[in-house]
Amino acid sequence: MIPAVVYGKHEETKPIAVKKRELLKIINEHGRNALISLDVDGKVETVILGEYQADPINQHLIHVDFLHVSMSSEIHAKVPVLLKGTAKGVEVGGVVQQSIHELNIKATPQNIPETIEVDVTNLEIGHTIKVGDIRNHYRNIIINHEDEDVIATIVSSQIQVDDLEEETSGDTVQATVDV
Predict the structure, then answer these.
(1) Of the residues 56, 105, 119, 135, which has the fewest C-beta atoms closer than 10 A?
(2) What would the pLDDT profile of 33-68 be if each residue is shown by its tens digit?
(3) Tell me, which fold does domain 76-161 have in CATH?
């Protein structure tokens, strides 16, 4: 069992304990922002996982907070960004650099996606995909980031020899690049 608390607007904070295996199964199958029906003192309440604490050594959950939710009220959540596809730039030797791994959003509980998928298939070396590029795909949520925030960039994996020669001013340099 994991010690936990249930709290939220207009609700009294209640200490509870939950079965670790059941909680982990829900999170693994439905994501961190899953709606959970939680039986608290014989009353079924709709909650989502709020904050949690994990053991710093083995990363096992040691305490969780559950937040009461109203299906009609928007809440803040963090949603993982999942890059989909193989970028054209990767096929010719580029490397994907993902700058944002999760987005802060605001939405009603039933509209919170498990992940935010970003298609990188058409990105070539030097191209980026920004929050503004995906905003129209997620009209039922508010993405709390600037349009210019970069989600991913395709960069070259090769060092240009001319650039190295200019930087070293004639010094001999050996470089090994593992990609």
Answers:
(1) 56
(2) 889 998 888 888 899 998 889 889 998 889 999 999
(3) RNA Polymerase Alpha Subunit; Chain A, domain 2 (2.170.120)
